[in-house]
Amino acid sequence: MPLSQLKDSVPVTGMGPQVGAYGVQDTLRSGFSSVKNELLPSHALELSEKNFQLNQDKINFSNLRNIQGLHAPLKLQMEYRAARQIQRLPFLQSSHLALDTLKGNDESISFEDILNDPAQSEMMGEPHVMVEYKLGMM
Amino acid sequence: MATLSVCQPQLGGFSFENCKRNAVLEAEVTKLGCNIPSARKTGTTICGVVFKDGIVLGADTRATEGMIVADKNCSKIHYISPNIYCCGAGTAADTEMTTQIISSNLELHSLSTSRLPRVATANRMLKQMLFRYQGHIGAALVLGGVDCNGPHLYSIYPHGSTDKLPYVTMGSGSLAAMAVFEDRYKQDMEEEDAKRLVRDAIAAGIFNDLGSGSNIDLCVITKGRVDYLRPHDMANKKGVRCVYEHEALPHQTGNYKYKQGTTGVLTKSVIKLDLEVVEETVQTMDTS
């Protein structure tokens, strides 16, 4: 029986088995699986924080569509998509300057900038694996 | 953790990696009978009042860690902007970080609009941030300031609800302070009356609540002027019993030493000790 039918009601984004090739748990990349680990988040805020930015964007875009018409969110999303492509390779730190300016993040400070700054992290991602993942080669 | 570092770049902000481990540790430790270290709270009395020309904010200065006083003179009135100050109760680190983040954001916002920030802006930023974290950030705040629309006073709860009122109290001593306010608050008070009212409200919290103590800090905000009075009143000096209204001077703690001459002297004999020099050495000191 697929896992989504075992859960209660709403499919929870972000929690679920990391499916690799052949539709099976990819043990090499995501480690051993445990039902308890996947069904329940470890903290009440974990899921809401993971999806916070996406949900905010969705709310803003739908408001914009209702107020100004379809063209406004379309144009903005096109600009976001263009700005998101100006980046270094995934294992290096890129400044996201254009994207931040578009989103308005250049004029605010929040916990994302203070805690757990990725520029200060002690571990670096594995270059080959990360680039292959980004290009969809694996 | 392994997945993220392998495939996707790391994100900033809160990391929930250790939550499951902490839950397991907590269960194990309670079985053994010890305690996990608790966060430092400011179990507090804070209050604010609107008077004729502005706002008076008041706070006590004790920070507790469980049953121990962690800081006898901590500062609970935080700077948000030149015309807005905020008192914080709850977890000390949470109030400190929250007010600093909001202060930075307000500064950036006021630079971008080239205007003096408004209290309503600070209020909305605080309530949106606290609601986002669903009360896990334990910061109960009293926000007050004077802007282009006059004096404003807000109370902000950890889950993100706010109230705009002429007088507010928060913290564990809030009921004692509110009792004083409810009795003596009048609209459009003078500055001295307002300062005396806030001082008495905080003193009520200090003397009737275990989580509040030490001194009373006041912050008077009017249009164009801020008086940060720290300490305004030292209600609990060490070694001095408190002043009551009908007594002129504070009296010292009792002196329980006996006077000279209490014990009668019967005989007295003096024996001189002859000391002879056994060895004499000189050690040079390195004075470079």
UniProtKB/TrEMBL annotation, chain A:
Name of the protein this chain belongs to: Proteasome maturation protein
Tree of life domain: Eukaryota
Keywords in alphabetical order: Chaperone
Similarity comment: Belongs to the POMP/UMP1 family.
GO process terms (BP): proteasome assembly
A Pfam cross-reference name: UMP1
Lineage, broadest ranks: Eukaryota, Metazoa, Chordata, Craniata, Vertebrata
One of the record's GO cellular component terms: nucleus
Automatic annotation (TrEMBL), chain B:
Subcellular location: Cytoplasm; Nucleus
Gene3D superfamilies (UniProt xref): Glutamine Phosphoribosylpyrophosphate, subunit 1, domain 1
GO terms for MF: threonine-type endopeptidase activity
SUPFAM superfamilies: N-terminal nucleophile aminohydrolases (Ntn hydrolases)
Catalytic activity: Cleavage of peptide bonds with very broad specificity
Pfam family, one: Proteasome
Catalytic site positions: T44 (nucleophile)
Coiled-coil region list: none
GO cellular component terms, semicolon-separated: cytoplasm; nucleus; proteasome core complex
Residues covered by the Proteasome beta subunit C-terminal domain: 253-282
Gene Ontology biological-process entries: proteolysis involved in protein catabolic process
Keyword annotations: Cytoplasm, Hydrolase, Nucleus, Protease, Proteasome, Threonine protease
InterPro entries per record: Ntn_hydrolases_N, Pept_T1A_subB, Proteasome_bsu_C, Proteasome_bsu_CS, Proteasome_sua/b, Proteasome_suB-type
Keyword Protease: yes
Function statement: Component of the proteasome, a multicatalytic proteinase complex which is characterized by its ability to cleave peptides with Arg, Phe, Tyr, Leu, and Glu adjacent to the leaving group at neutral or slightly basic pH. The proteasome has an ATP-dependent proteolytic activity. The proteasome is a multicatalytic proteinase complex which is characterized by its ability to cleave peptides with Arg, Phe, Tyr, Leu, and Glu adjacent to the leaving group at neutral or slightly basic pH. The proteasome has an ATP-dependent proteolytic activity. This subunit is involved in antigen processing to generate class I binding peptides.
Family that this chain belongs to: Belongs to the peptidase T1B family.
Subunit structure: Component of the proteasome complex.
Name under which the protein is recorded: Proteasome subunit beta
UniProt source species: Oncorhynchus mykiss (Rainbow trout)
